[in-house]
Design goal:
Order of helices and strands: HHHHHH
Bound molecules: protoporphyrin IX containing FE
Structural class: mainly alpha
CATH class: Mainly Alpha
Number of strands: 0
Helix content: over 70%
CATH superfamily: Globins
Length: about 130
């Protein structure tokens, strides 16, 4: 990622964290399960904890921007955990699409093509590391 992309993602992150996490979670999981209903069974019946998990996922994505080395053991473990759940490449694509869609809705007028491409590279880099793990 370029420094400019990192800067863009970090700035939008501040705004995102000011939005109710429950709302962001609802938007993300609704979009995800509409796009691919088969994914629903991978998640717990009770989704109340899941909004926190989505924020955890975002923390990983943004946190990984500058601490790739520190996180690498954790990334390996997280990658394994996802592999054990049966998660494969096309799932990463669907989750990435739902994430970008959610960010677009959440960031509203602050959203633009440059920011979209910055978030996409950020997500793809981490998704690749998780799959390599
Ligand atoms: C860059 C991509 C991703 C990141 C950073 C990420 C991050 C995380 C994190 C931090 C957790 C919580 C782990 C824990 O509590 O121990 C988690 C759990 C989980 N993730 Fe991901 N994830 C990613 C992609 C995906 C994809 C593509 C799927 C496929 C649908 C997925 C499905 C799940 C499921 C089913 C759980 C467990 C939920 C539960 O049992 O509560 N994740 N993920």
């Amino acid at each position: 990622m370029t420094n400019q992309e990192i800067k863009l993602v970090k700035n939008s992150w501040r705004k995102l964290m000011g939005i109710d996490h429950g709302i962001i979670g609802d938007v993300f999981y609704s979009r995800l399960f509409i796009q691919q209903p088969g994914l629903r069974k991978m998640f717990p019946a009770d989704m109340t904890q899941q909004n926190k998990k989505l924020v955890d996922m975002l923390v990983y994505i943004v946190g990984g921007l500058e601490q790739a080395d520190i996180l690498s053991n954790e990334i390996r473990a997280l990658g394994k955990q996802h592999q054990n759940l049966g998660i494969v490449a096309h799932h990463y694509e669907t989750v990435g699409d739902a994430l970008i869609w959610t960010l677009e809705k959440a960031l509203g007028i602050d959203w633009n093509e440059e920011l979209k491409s910055a978030w996409k590279s950020c997500y793809s880099e981490l998704a690749e590391s998780l799959q390599e793990a």
